[in-house]
Amino acid sequence: MGTDGCIARNSLPFLRVCGLTKNYVRRSGIWRTRISVGAVRGVDFEITAGNTLALVGSSGSGKSTVARCVTGLERADAGQIWVGGTDISRLGNRALRRFRSEIQMIFQDAVTSMNPRFAAAQIIEEPLLIQGRGSKEERRRRARELMSEVGLSPDSADRSVMEFSGGQRQRLAIARALALQPKLLVLDEALSGLDLSTEAQITNLLLELQAAHSLTYLFISHDLPLVARLADRIAVISAGRIVEQGPTPQVISSPNHPKTKALVGSATTFQKTYADMLGVSR
Amino acid sequence: MTGELSEELVQITDLTITYSPGGSPPVRASDHARLEIHRGEVIGVLGESGSGKSTLASALLRLLPSYARCESGSVMFRGRNLLKLREPELRKVRGKELSLISQDPALSLNPVMRVGDQIAEVVRAHMTVSGSERKQHVEELLRAVGFDQPQQICSAYPYQLSGGQRQRVAIAQAIACRPVLVIADEPTSKLDAPLQAGILALLSEIRRRDGTAFLVISHDPTIFPGFADRIVVMYAGRVVEEGKTEDIFRRPLHPYTQALVRLSERYFLNAGASRMRFPVIAGEAPDLTRIDVGCRFEPRCPERMQVCKNCDPRELTPEPFRRVSCFKYGN
Fold first, then answer.
1. CB distance A225–B267 less than 8 Å?
2. Cβ burial A201-227 (10 Å sphere, 16+ → b, else e)
3. From B286, which residue of chain A is nearest by alpha-carbon distance?
4. Which class would CATH give A9-102+184-242?
5. Going residue by residue through chain A (282 aa), what tens digit of pLDDT does each one get?
6. Which fold has domain B8-97+179-268+279-286?
């Protein structure tokens, strides 16, 4: 785990985001005047290889825009996104392609990110096909391997995506994201909307995969208690700016910014009601 | 409150509903379910997706999809069987005596109609009041759900409001005709934690002020402490346990409830728990198209016995105000 102040060679940042800015243009009023809405304004953070950074904020705070810029789904208006020694925000589409396989994204609603006519194996093979990896047989073998790695039976490789449950589809989304052996996974609310028991299973799976493949995670969520259990560091985003960041235990036990205090506060108020009910003192 | 003799509003008995969309194999969404709701009570229905909790709510409002089939049972609401009621009579009940707060007000509100008009529409349908009285009533409702400047909200369109504000508008709409029972289907699951607490406090206040009963459906057990009087736990279409909220959390009886309560500790903010594995319930919920005998939780249950696979567990009453369907507590 990345302890602050430890200057080991392997603790160099895998991802470094400097001054990331992204504006959306909206037309408003009867004259349809163009208004620039600052979604993300000067965001800085870095993630050490093999570590997890949680980007926490309420809806509309700009956290998903950060995710979309880091994965190259959106072009940043200003700022740099360093992956290793390359600033990917400056790359053209062709050069970016190589980096796309290193950075993969998992979305909140797995099924809307999948072709409903595809079978499970096709979903996983698609990124391999796009990147031109392996023969048909090799791709099929890899899909089956990945299915068992994420806890799906390879026997269901030919079943349609629509036949899978919510939890199984999220496993499938993880398998697809892993197909290109990425180094960084961007998880945008990947666990919200899942049932409690499914969420617990998927969380454990993510922890196991991280340990097995030294994956780096950028975990985007509004759920502070959950990220506290997953992340090494937490960055709190509000109105497009990062208002506080630091190692998880520090952010939780001594929050500085009012926004962080509000998040910690609402989590602990709830916890108190709950603990009172259970009759335990915590 | 449970324990006191208050008027029984709803009695659902032996309700079995199957779904078969497009002629697919029937899924038993509700399996001999039973539920009572008394005046002024907050009942929580706790269950994961596919447990049948929303089916119960839809049956109560008779908003079941066209491919639903009611195989057995009745839904009695103040002496009338809602499943047998004709559409014009049903329309007098819905919105007036019985109303719904849905999960996503962004979908349930009309996007091209001002908020004030949408609330007034409900009032117009069920109450005979003049236009100015109606306007005043709408503003009072908006004030009651926490808006300081109701006139402004009245003239806004849903898209101009935040998620939390929209949910408050939906609540104002639901309580417009002072219903005796409001069904809230996952009322907070689309909201951030600080907003969640506000909505739950508002529902509690409405209950206190108007004596409204609430049936609150959620997959998140943590919204119930301090809010619900009783909890009904559902799994795979069946009610597996019911009890007072504190009993469900302090002494859960059914192995499934026990596991859920353990899982919900994940909501505790623990600074020292980084990268700690979560406790899990192994396996997945059963495929409800394959209806057979036995406890539905048996394949995942850590305490399963031979009998669990071969027989359906009967409902037992191990203590007052409690029921559980598990062979651990007898046969």
1. yes
2. bbbbbbbebbeeeebbbbbbbbbbbbb
3. A165
4. alpha beta
5. 444 433 444 567 899 999 999 998 877 777 777 777 778 999 999 999 999 999 999 878 889 899 999 998 889 999 999 998 889 988 888 888 888 889 999 988 888 889 999 999 999 999 999 888 989 999 999 999 999 999 999 999 999 998 888 889 999 999 999 999 999 999 999 988 888 899 999 999 999 999 999 999 999 998 898 999 899 999 999 999 999 999 999 999 999 999 999 989 888 877 788 777 776 544
6. Rossmann fold (3.40.50)
